[in-house]
């Protein structure tokens, strides 16, 4: 090789080394940056959008007027097409239905009204084939009084099942008062002449509280949980579990205690021991998520339930947000303050559920939005935008995606919910104003959220060919899934768009939340930021035009989503950003 050739080779070699060094440096840096940007502790249940199905009211397949499992199976494609990836199913176990399945008489069987175990197997297979996880309700603060355990327990003081429940022998005198949420007299002790003793029931007389202090009972519950986990379910929602642990000495509470049910009854002694045990015996052995109804009385209580290092639960529902809406309205400042406070308390550790409705609440749009013909659609979409852009796992109740509204029953005989009937009787007994009571129930009653799902404009909204167990809302002629399917701007199609949007933007799941324009009484404005992305969300919670003053740099901002057909073309400027009634917009900032 010539001298010139050798020099060329040497130069090329040097360039090659430089190129390699530079590439290595860039690659290293890129990795580090990616590492830094990556959200930590990612979990499927954090990324899930959970759709709640109330089986009794979803779809009836056999014409008996009651929704059932085959009905749900027939709608699996609808559910899949919502884009959601998990379903929470209210209780489907055998039950005499004093409280619509929240009074279980056999934890290993399916309620006759709902079908058979074979139907359940088809349901779970159908869900899994479609990539949908199934979360089941676990109702073990209490059982039904028709459960075999209770039948045995009440039969004799020496029954091996006696201690599965809480009994107070009458020769000790009357037990210290305890409050019942559903009892006509609000007395949680019910006298039973068979053994001359009182049993405890925080809910109805037909829902005796189980004794979690008894290790035998706990063993039985874990075996039941394993039975369902072995069937392949993907999670448990622990009904009323914060009330499960009790001080069995039943100390006397100070006067007025009954108004503070949550304070005196939640997170009793050893509750955390029971949860740790449940985690060790069940949760840790399966890929299941766990969520508790209720989060105690403070952030500390809530953290102790859900922080990862506690080995208890994955998340909890805190009630403070959902309780804000009252029949006289609510203040947006209060709403923002509550959601911002909870977010910041869980920014570094723990995980929250985000929800504004469920089977225990009236309809989302009637409580938090505006269900007048003019604003129903815009406000329902705006609320969905809120739920899908907050940090935490969103839970969305069936029918809200259509913008279904409160039915507003006028007579007590219209209601099906035992808790309302009992409370009505109580109001009568204490000579209270029952008309006022009924007026308020039009706004708050949980039966508002339990009217049949409105599938189409046909007979009974396509829910059943028989007589529905609870009346169908007459507005089904214009609020129904079939109509909304065809309308690209319907609540239904907007909901689908939003779910898809959340799924493709992890920043909405994990990103940092920051409240803007704090004092604005009409607009809820916030950013979500992380992994190099930043989004600005502006929500007009009022029926009037509003202005958001967000004071963030809008250079290069892009409008990504809006609940109005005609999206805003301008970006927020010096003088703020104008929003139409119940308008919701999402901008990408970077
Ligand atoms: C929970 C359920 C509710 C039920 C109660 C008693 O709060 O969500 O529907 O009535 O527990 O089980």
Overview of this structure, please?
- Strand 14 and strand 15 form a beta hairpin.
- The strands form 5 sheets. This protein has an 8-stranded parallel beta sheet with strand order 11-10-9-5-2-1-13-12. A 5-stranded antiparallel beta sheet has the order 14-15-16-20-18.
- It starts with a helix and ends with a strand.
- It is of the alpha/beta class and 590 residues long.
- The N terminus is likely disordered.
- The chain is globular.
- Helix 14 runs parallel beside helix 18 and helix 15 runs antiparallel to helix 16.
- The site of alpha-D-glucopyranose (GLC) has 9 residues, from loops.
Topology:
Elements: H1 3-37, H2 44-47, E1 50-53, H3 55-58, H4 69-74, H5 76-81, E2 86-89, E3 93-94, E4 106-110, H6 117-129, E5 133-138, H7 148-155, E6 167-169, E7 189-192, E8 197-200, H8 215-230, E9 235-238, H9 261-265, H10 271-281, E10 289-293, H11 299-306, E11 315-317, H12 332-345, E12 353-354, H13 364-368, H14 376-388, E13 393-397, H15 418-429, H16 434-444, H17 481-486, H18 491-503, H19 507-510, E14 512-516, E15 523-530, E16 533-540, E17 546-548, E18 558-562, E19 577-579, E20 584-588
Parallel strand pairs: 1-2, 1-13, 2-5, 5-9, 9-10, 10-11, 12-13
Antiparallel strand pairs: 3-4, 6-8, 7-8, 14-15, 15-16, 16-20, 17-19, 18-20
Helix pairs in contact: 14-18, 15-16
This protein binds alpha-D-glucopyranose.
């Amino acid at each position: 090789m010539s001298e010139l050739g050798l020099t060329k080779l040497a130069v090329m070699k040097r360039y090659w080394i430089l190129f390699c060094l530079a590439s290595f440096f860039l690659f290293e840096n890129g990795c580090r940056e990616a590492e830094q940007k990556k959200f930590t502790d990612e979990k499927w249940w954090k990324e899930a959008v959970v759709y709640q199905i109330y089986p009794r009211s979803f779809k009836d397949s056999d014409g008996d007027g009651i929704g059932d499992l085959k009905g749900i199976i027939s709608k699996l494609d609808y559910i899949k097409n919502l884009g959601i990836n998990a379903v929470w199913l209210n209780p489907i176990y055998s039950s005499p239905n004093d409280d619509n399945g929240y009074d279980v008489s056999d934890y290993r069987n399916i309620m006759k009204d709902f079908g058979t175990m074979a139907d359940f197997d088809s349901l779970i297979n159908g869900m899994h084939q479609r990539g949908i996880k199934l979360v089941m309700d676990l109702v073990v603060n209490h059982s039904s009084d028709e459960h075999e355990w209770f039948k045995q327990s009440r039969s004799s003081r020496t029954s091996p099942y006696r201690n599965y429940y809480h009994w107070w022998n009458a020769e000790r005198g009357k037990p210290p008062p305890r409050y019942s949420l559903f009892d006509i007299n609000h007395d949680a002790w019910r006298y039973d002449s068979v053994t001359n003793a009182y049993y405890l029931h925080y809910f109805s007389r037909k829902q005796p509280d189980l004794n979690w202090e008894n290790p035998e009972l706990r063993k039985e519950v874990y075996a039941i949980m394993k039975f369902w986990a072995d069937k392949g379910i993907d999670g448990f929602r622990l009904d009323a579990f914060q009330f499960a642990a009790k001080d069995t000495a039943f100390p006397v509470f100070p006067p007025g205690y009954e108004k503070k049910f949550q304070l005196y009854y939640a997170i009793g002694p050893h509750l955390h021991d029971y949860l740790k045990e449940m985690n060790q015996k069940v949760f840790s052995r399966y890929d299941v998520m766990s969520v508790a109804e209720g989060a105690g009385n403070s952030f500390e209580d809530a953290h102790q339930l859900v922080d990862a290092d506690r080995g208890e639960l994955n998340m909890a529902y805190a009630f403070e947000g959902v309780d804000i809406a009252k029949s006289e309205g609510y203040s947006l400042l209060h709403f923002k303050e509550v959601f911002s406070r909870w977010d910041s308390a869980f920014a570094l550790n723990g995980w929250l559920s985000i929800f504004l409705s469920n089977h225990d609440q009236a309809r989302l749009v009637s409580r938090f939005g505006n269900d007048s013909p003019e604003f129903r659609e815009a406000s329902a979409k705006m609320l969905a935008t809120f739920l899908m852009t907050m940090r935490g796992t969103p839970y969305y109740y069936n029918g809200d995606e259509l913008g279904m509204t409160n039915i507003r029953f006028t007579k007590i005989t219209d209601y099906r919910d035992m808790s309302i009937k009992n409370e009505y009787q109580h109001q009568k007994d204490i000579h209270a104003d029952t008309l006022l009571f009924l007026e308020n129930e039009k706004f708050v009653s949980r039966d508002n959220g339990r009217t049949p799902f409105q599938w189409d404009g046909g007979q009974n909204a396509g829910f059943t060919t028989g007589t529905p167990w609870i009346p169908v809302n007459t507005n089904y002629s214009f609020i129904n899934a079939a109509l909304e399917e065809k309308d690209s701007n319907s609540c239904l199609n907007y909901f689908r768009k939003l779910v898809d949007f959340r799924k493709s933007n992890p920043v909405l799941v994990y990103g940092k939340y920051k409240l803007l324009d704090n004092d604005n009484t009409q607009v809820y404005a916030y950013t979500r930021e992380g992994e190099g992305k930043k989004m600005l969300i502006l929500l007009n919670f009022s029926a009037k035009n509003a202005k958001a003053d967000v004071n963030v740099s809008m250079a290069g901002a892009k409008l990504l989503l809006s609940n109005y057909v005609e999206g805003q073309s301008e970006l927020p400027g010096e003088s703020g950003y104008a929003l139409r009634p119940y308008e919701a917009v999402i901008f990408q900032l970077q």
